[in-house]
User: What shape does this take?
Amino acid sequence: MQTKDLIAAYYAAFNAGRTEEMLTYLHDEVEHHVNEGQIRRGKDLFRAFNAHMTDSYKEELTDITIFANDAGDRAAAEFVVNGTYLKTDDGLPEARGQKYVLPAGTFFSIRDGKIARVTTYYNLADWTAQVSA
Assistant: This one.
């Protein structure tokens, strides 16, 4: 599978809520670098993160644009997160079903035909302001 197709499949699974399928696109030694958080290493921690996110947020990504280098070992995606805050997350404002729209981006490393690094960035202050309004 080509790098852009791999990333597109990963996001298609995300948007469809198929979090177990997302894991099939990940390298066993995946590193997940989250915005404002610790690095999670391995599929088990990625699975736990997805379970937490599914419990607390309902999100759909739109306007996805995928970039990849010629070697196919690095990629990036820019998109808009359209979400609903379902359940209060520790240290964050109280959830009351607030809607939010947030530009975001992710950087990827590819190894052995799988996603070996996922690094996501978004503006937490923007998100906080939207759900606090």
About this structure: The mean pLDDT is 95. The helical segments are 3-15, 19-24, 43-56, 124-132. The two ends are 43 Å apart (CA to CA). The longest strand covers residues 99-111.
